[in-house]
Design goal:
The protein folds into 2 domains: 2-143 and 294-311, Glycogen Phosphorylase B (Rossmann fold, 3-Layer(aba) Sandwich), CATH 3.40.50.2000; 154-292, 3-Layer(aba) Sandwich (Rossmann fold), CATH 3.40.50. It is 44% helix and 16% strand. The protein contains 16 helices and 11 strands. It has helices at residues 18-21, 23-34, 49-53, 56-66, 76-84, 97-100, 102-114, 123-128, 154-161, 183-193, 206-215, 230-237, 250-254, 267-279, 287-290, 295-311; strands at residues 2-8, 38-44, 70-74, 90-94, 117-120, 137-139, 169-172, 197-199, 218-221, 242-245, 260-263. The strands form 2 sheets. Strands 2-1-3-4-5-6 form a 6-stranded parallel beta sheet, with helices on both faces. Strands 8-7-9-10-11 form a 5-stranded parallel beta sheet, sandwiched between helices. The protein is elongated and about 60 Å long. It starts with a strand and ends in a 5-residue tail after the last helix.
Length: 316
Amino acid sequence: MRILIVCSGNLKDGSFSFEIDQAFIFEQMQAIRKMGYEIDVFFIAGKGPKEYLKNLAPLKSQIKRGNYEIIHAHFGLSGLISVLQRHRPVVVTFHGSDINDPKNNIISSVVSYLSKWRIFVSSKLYKKIFIKPKNRYSIIPCGIDSEVFHPIDKIEARRMLGLDKHEKYILFTSSFSNKVKNYPLAKKAVDLLGKVHLLELSNRTRIEVNLLLNAVDLFLMTSFDEGSPQVIKEAMACNCPIVTTDVGDVKEILNNTKGCYITAYDPFDVKEKIGLALECRGRTDSRAKILSFDNNIVARNVIDIYHEVLKNCKIL
């Protein structure tokens, strides 16, 4: 089977790294490749619907040259240009921003209607999409690489990152400048605590992210919206304590794990939950709960969808 992945390849801070900027797509693709399937990637240039549509002709040309059997688009806008070519069946994965934003939700609803199969990374996203499919859809969170994300000694991780072994560190979910991630709330809560360093998670390799999750005392997410936040699952794979707002599927994923807390959008409540997590004075037992999201298991589920779609579609 030959598969074409369609996703954004927009530059970020002057450069684009598929492995870093679209890690959840890259890792799923690699897991599928390891199972013996041929996969290429079409990177979309430009931002917004008008710019995306300029990629339609190049996409059609690549599909014709590559003789792909199925197209898998990630995010609604990528799905838009994918469904406008009518030669190959399209599977679309909706990740969050493509449905949480009302304007994007309209586009995603049209894309969903025209797709042969829809994957939602959380049940909340399925409930939010304006036009809900009644069949040919799945709820499949993105998987994690459990070999990359694993527990290691905290002191050793700090040594490798150059962090002080005596200080308290909290890792923030993303770049401080990302408005959806709600850094101001995290900053207010940490300022209330005092004597705690808030670290920014930005432009890090997967190996570095694993080291950070093992080095810090706590992982903090204060986002306004998420789909199925990948880094929450990665933190759990490292047995890292977590404080997060109730976004995406985090409550379901955390599943009352000791040392992990859901917080309100209130700096005093965030401070309180951080204090509770830090009182655990150690790591969690969350890794055992997250191994069902291993990339190999998720990849097999996605492959089953490909076969189901091809079984019911006539390739033109």
